[in-house]
Amino acid sequence: MIRGSIVALVTPMQSDESVDWDRLVALVNWHIQSGTQAIVPVGTTGESPTVTPHEHCEIIRAVVTAANGRVPVVAGTGANSTREAIDFTASAKDSGADACLLVTPYYNKPTQEGLFLHHKAIAAAVDLPQVLYNVPGRTACDLLPETVQRLADIPQVVGIKEATGLVERAASIRALCGDDFLIFSGDDETACELMLQGGHGTISVTANLVPAQMAAMAAAATTGDRARAEALNEPLMGLHQSLFVESNPIPVKWALAEMGRISKEIRLPLTRLAEHHHERVKQAMMTAGINPS
């Protein structure tokens, strides 16, 4: 079972905005050495909307190769076209991914029935475990608990990344779908509490910067050790908040560049972090034990 701290991995880029494959591999190795328990390439944090379809598939392949079975790889394969999501998911399976993360179709605003049929079609086409991904603040589409319950009856649908930030939403899903249905936080600020209330882990932006700290906090929270989990989470709260002062992954890529782990490159229409946010993010990094350059 996948549980604990799962990093929503950034996609490092070179000065010409091409994928920096060497640094991508280096990030994978750093995360595994630091205790990250699974890796999600090409999600929102990995700039899935702006990498090309070929790059999308090659990034997944590169991460699977670098991980080499040491931790599970949950490939981001969502799209607002069901056919495209099927193609990405099939490619991820061929590359050896352990599961896929499927964001709700964005922009076209499907109905709950459309969402059900979307995931049913992907499951019928590709036999790969699916983790649903609900983030209505970005997609204008909310996957409701009753629809999640219907989807949980499909054998390939094994869990959900719930990114509304509403801990009570996760509780509703757990009540409807049972304890074996995996529930991951998609909101760093509320992740600790969600895990303390029975969630299985967190698919985290913050983990890009402090993988060991997030792994330790998630381990405490998923085993119900509230005092230790909250103590470990407290110095990370500034990061949980400041990494969203501009659209993700703008702040986290800037912070990783400050740490010397990647370049500052990011693809339009996203831009580098505005200067007036630099000090806030730096202060949060230092509180979390990071010494930016």
Explain this structure.
The chain is an alpha/beta fold and 293 residues long. The protein has one domain (4-225): TIM Barrel, CATH 3.20.20. The protein is built from 13 helices and eight strands. It has an eight-stranded parallel β-sheet with strand order 2-1-8-7-6-5-4-3.
Quickly name the level 1 CATH class: Alpha Beta
Output the number of helix runs: 13
Helix-strand topology string: EHEHEHEHEHHEHEHEHHHHH
Helix percent reads 40-55%
CATH level 4 superfamily? Aldolase class I
As residue ranges, the low-confidence spans are: none
Strand content: 5-15%
What structural class do the secondary elements suggest?
Answer: alpha/beta
Radius of gyration using CA atoms only: 18 Å
Biggest sheet, in brief? 8 strands, parallel
Short description:
With 293 residues, this protein is an alpha/beta fold. The chain has helices at 21-34, 53-67, 82-95, 112-125, 136-139, 145-152, 167-177, 188-196, 211-222, 226-233, 237-242, 250-258, 278-287, and strands at residues 4-8, 38-40, 74-76, 99-103, 130-134, 157-162, 182-185, 201-204.
What descriptive keywords fit this protein?
alpha/beta; TIM Barrel; eight-stranded parallel β-sheet; 13 helices
Write the layout of secondary structure elements.
Elements: E1 4-8, H1 21-34, E2 38-40, H2 53-67, E3 74-76, H3 82-95, E4 99-103, H4 112-125, E5 130-134, H5 136-139, H6 145-152, E6 157-162, H7 167-177, E7 182-185, H8 188-196, E8 201-204, H9 211-222, H10 226-233, H11 237-242, H12 250-258, H13 278-287
Helix pairs in contact: 1-2, 2-3, 3-4, 4-6, 6-7, 8-9, 9-10
